[in-house]
Design a protein that fits this description.
By secondary structure, the protein is an alpha+beta fold. It folds into three domains: 51 residues, no CATH class; 286 residues, FAD/NAD(P)-binding domain (3-Layer(bba) Sandwich); 156 residues, Flavocytochrome C3, Chain A, domain 1, CATH 3.90.700. The chain has 18 helices and 18 strands. Helix 6 packs across helix 7 and helix 7 crosses helix 18. The longest helix has 20 residues. The structure holds flavin-adenine dinucleotide. The site of flavin-adenine dinucleotide (FAD) has 37 residues, from strand 9, helix 12 and helix 18.
């Protein structure tokens, strides 16, 4: 970012930073979003390029070559849109689904973990019943009460029933082979609370038990819904990119205009409503930088280097999916569009974004690696069990050290994103076996390459019979720094024996379990992982939407005819995507999509 201006103190000037980003071509100029920018002089604003917030010029009517009328027009056939369409069609409504993906290779919603509350399936497969008030309190606490409690309540009351309905479309034999409940029944040693953060067992995992590739089977359920919905008359329009809502003189939304692959336009008129289900803006740098406060601030702090900081928070699972990524968790290329168009359409029709605060996706409390971690200076720097979303320096360097009792420690881990899944019999035995062949002695080893090994430690692995020997093999600290590291390890062990982490307040049970006492000792040196907090492959900041899915106008009243679900609807995961169960994004998209479909069909 050589173009950034520096002020006399050598700090990057904010306006220079924003201009510098624009100059790289990585994004268009950011305008009205920020108070600071809004305070720019009128003359500067005049010369600014159009922002994503500005409603585009009307589409030339002569280019609209087709018009269709439906009860419900669903924009995006993913995890929310698919189930909105299915529920509405099942209630007798006529439905059009506008989908930007091509029919060939269509993925109806990425992912494999689907979290719901007290479904019959979960209870039948060993999940302890969730106390709903306890769950709601945890959600409120994680969101620092900035979320919409009615939305949370609606999800808690309905998601179990809806999950049972959704999976009733696939046969039981398929389900037995392709679904299980995450870490259910729980091992007796599994913790349900860490450092005060609570976790629940409500996540269904869709992976084939005989296939070790990690390929998600959840989209198969969607295909079953699409088939049934089509039998009931619903129509999918592939390679149609929804561009703009039609708004009448009273401000009501009456339909959508979409662009076909051949460049022509189609008008979809909606008798009952338009459901925006078109996900977020992870592929739109301009929107990501404008909307995601932490992402923008991190970029600014890094001098505008858009390629840095696209991984998870320190100690958490790395997302590895930066802005623009189109990879599924199993590494398969997917064509799902996340260009922010659903949100733009909502804003151009009179809606606004959730108030926030608005953060990017990754970093989850309790999702740290739990074992002792030291930095480049040989210092311990955080509570490894709670994790930290604090950005580390760009030459981030972490050493993770544990002893022979590591299997007991990972068995204690609760069911958060990226945690070990003790019910996944394709994954759990190799997870436990991964260090069995690593013996003390000089030389580097590596962690298993198995796709299912979700254990979050990454880097070069060393093994020794004593800590001193281990430090010698790792050879990552020299002289005084090595002495410092040794002293830190000794202090950590003393605190473990006392049972109290006087430095960072780590959970006492985890302190006790992670004392470095029984050989062999293992050390993993990770140079350059876990830095920063990127936008992630998906975003959760959505339109201000009420519990019934109405998109709200500037008076916080419903815009007639306009609804949103999934990641187009905000007020759910505020501050960051850190939830009491893994898979709540799909769980909520599916639940709210279904409820919206049912509600619209009944109008
Ligand atoms: C690789 C990966 C793995 C994930 N794994 C999980 C998981 O295991 N559990 C979990 O809870 N969450 C997971 N997520 C997040 C989850 O997939 C999303 O949060 C969820 O799908 C959101 O649902 P949605 O309906 O809002 O969007 P999507 O399911 O993404 O559906 C949006 C659809 O709209 C289409 N579209 C977009 N714009 C337009 C337009 N203008 N016109 C027409 N169509 C349009 C897209 O092509 C897409 O089909 C994962 C995300 C990724 C990227």
């Amino acid at each position: 970012m050589s173009k950034n201006k520096k002020n006399p103190e050598g700090q990057i000037d904010r306006r220079g930073f924003l201009k510098g980003i624009a100059a790289t071509g990585a994004m268009a100029t950011i305008t009205a979003a920020h108070t600071e920018t809004a305070a720019q002089s009128a003359s500067e604003n005049k010369s600014a390029a159009k922002s994503w917030r500005d409603r585009p010029d009307p589409i030339d009517e002569s280019l609209i070559s087709e018009v269709g009328t439906y009860d419900i027009v669903v924009v995006g056939g993913g995890n929310s849109g698919m189930y909105c369409a299915s529920a509405a069609a099942n209630k007798g409504a006529s439905v059009a689904v506008i989908e930007a993906q091509a029919e060939k290779g269509y993925v109806a919603g990425a992912g494999k973990e689907v979290a719901t509350v007290n479904s019959q399936y979960a209870l039948d497969h060993g999940a302890p019943r969730i106390e709903v008030d306890d769950f709601l309190r945890e959600w409120a606490r994680r969101n620092a009460i900035c979320h919409d409690p009615r939305r949370a309540s609606c999800y808690v009351k309905n998601s179990g029933r809806i999950f049972d309905w959704v999976i009733s479309f696939v046969d039981k034999k398929w389900l037995d082979e392709n679904c299980h409940m995450f870490s259910c029944p729980p091992l007796p040693e599994c913790l349900s609370e860490v450092s005060g953060w609570r976790f629940y067992h409500g996540t269904a995992v869709f992976l084939n038990k005989n296939n070790n590739t990690g390929l998600e089977t959840w989209p198969v359920v969607a295909r079953a819904h699409k088939k049934k919905a089509e039998e009931l008359g619903a129509k999918w329009f592939f390679e149609h990119h929804a561009e703009i809502c039609d708004v009448d003189g009273s401000g009501a939304v009456t339909g959508v205009v979409a662009k076909r692959a051949d460049g022509r336009y189609v008008r979809f008129k909606a008798r009952k409503g338009v459901a925006l289900c078109a996900e977020g803006f992870a592929q739109n740098s301009e929107m990501a930088i404008d909307i995601l406060d932490t992402y923008r601030h991190e970029l600014e702090a890094r001098g505008g280097n858009i390629n840095a900081g696209a991984s998870g928070g320190q100690g958490g699972a790395q997302s590895g999916r930066g802005v623009g990524s189109a990879l599924s968790a199993s590494g398969v290329k997917i064509g799902i569009i996340r260009d922010g168009s659903g949100i733009k359409m909502g804003i151009w029709a009179g809606g606004h974004l959730e108030i926030g605060p608005r953060a990017s996706a990754s970093g989850e409390p309790g999702g740290g690696v739990w074992f002792l971690q030291l930095n480049k200076n040989g210092e311990r720097f955080f509570d490894e069990a709670a994790g930290s979303a604090m950005r580390q320096p760009s030459d981030n360097f972490t050493v993770t050290i544990h002893d022979a009792n590591w299997k007991k420690v990972i068995a204690m881990r609760p069911t958060h994103h990226g945690s070990v899944d003790t019910a996944d019999m394709t994954s759990w035995p190799p997870t436990l076996a991964q260090l069995d062949n690593v013996k003390p002695g000089p030389g580097k080893n590596s962690w298993g390459k198995d796709r299912f090994l979700r254990f979050t430690i990454q880097g070069d692995l060393y093994c020794a019979n004593t800590i001193e020997e281990l430090l010698g093999y790792m050879d990552c600290w020299k002289g005084e720094t090595r002495k410092k590291a040794l002293a830190e390890i000794q202090r950590y062990n003393e605190m473990c024996r006392k049972g109290v982490d006087e430095d960072f307040g780590k959970d006492r049970r985890i302190m006790k379990a992670t004392e470095l006492k029984d050989p062999p000792f293992y050390g993993t040196v990770n140079k350059g992982g876990g830095i920063g907090m990127g936008a992630g492959g998906y975003t959760f900041v959505g339109l201000d939407t009420d519990a019934e899915g109405h998109v709200l106008n500037s008076e916080f009243k419903p815009i007639k005819g306009l609804y949103a679900a999934g990641n187009n609807a905000g007020n759910r995961f505020i501050i960051r995507y850190q939830t009491p169960m893994a898979g709540m994004s799909i769980g909520m998209a599916m639940t709210e999509g279904c409820l919206l479909g049912e509600r619209l069909a009944a109008l």
